[in-house]
Structure formats: C-alpha cells, structure tokens
Design the sequence.
C-alpha cells in the first residue's frame, strides 16, 4: 500500500507564501501520477497541480499556475507545492493524492486517484 502524509500548511496573511510537502512511503510503485487537490468547506474538490514521476511532466490548473509550482524531490521521496502570493480564496484543506498510470487527461479527476493523504489546512487571511 502507499501512504501519503502532507505537511507545511498553516495560517498566513494574504501575499505570503507556503510550501507544502507530501511524503510518500510504503509501496511507492503504486503511484506514478501524484497530484495536489484542495477543498474548501462546503465546496467541491479542486485539482491544483500534478506531476508524473516517470515522465516528470507537471500539470497545473490554469488559474493557479502563475502562483503555484509543483516539484518532485526524488531523494526525499516527496511531492512539493510552492504557493506564492496567497489569497483568501486559497483557503482550503490541501490533499496529496497518487494513482497508477498516466496523469494526462485524468489528473483533475479525484476519483481516478487510489491513494490519499489526510490533508493539511491552509488558511489565508
């Protein structure tokens, strides 16, 4: 099985930056496409960014790509999300997810991901 643990969340004023990390452990062969999703209270789950471990191609939501950057740290076995110029509308629980196979064409679909972390809270005032 694959275990995912997010960290790096917190409460910050608008304009600040946060860097989230997702540590993957267990049988990491089970997920080649890794992604970040977020969900605000009472709202649907939103795909933020994704990264394919094999091809090393990154994917972004168009509305976020100017401020967010996803990267893979192979040595630490983490998927990181650098979030700059944070806005109050970025407030949400941020989840790390992983699935086997490709990212292209399905990374925005939450149901395509078999493995999920518990999430880390990001609050922007």
Sequence:
């Amino acid at each position: 099985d694959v275990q995912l643990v997010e960290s790096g969340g917190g409460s910050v004023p608008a304009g600040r930056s946060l860097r989230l990390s997702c540590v993957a452990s267990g049988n990491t062969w089970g997920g080649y496409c890794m992604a970040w999703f977020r969900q605000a209270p009472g709202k649907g789950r939103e795909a933020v960014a994704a990264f394919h471990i094999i091809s090393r191609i990154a994917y972004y939501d168009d509305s976020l790509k100017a401020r967010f950057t996803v990267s893979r740290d192979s040595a630490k076995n983490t998927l990181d999300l650098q979030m700059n110029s944070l806005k109050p509308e970025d407030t949400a629980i941020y989840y790390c997810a992983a699935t086997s196979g490709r990212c292209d064409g399905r990374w925005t679909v939450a149901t395509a991901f078999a493995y999920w972390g518990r999430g880390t809270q990001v609050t922007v005032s």
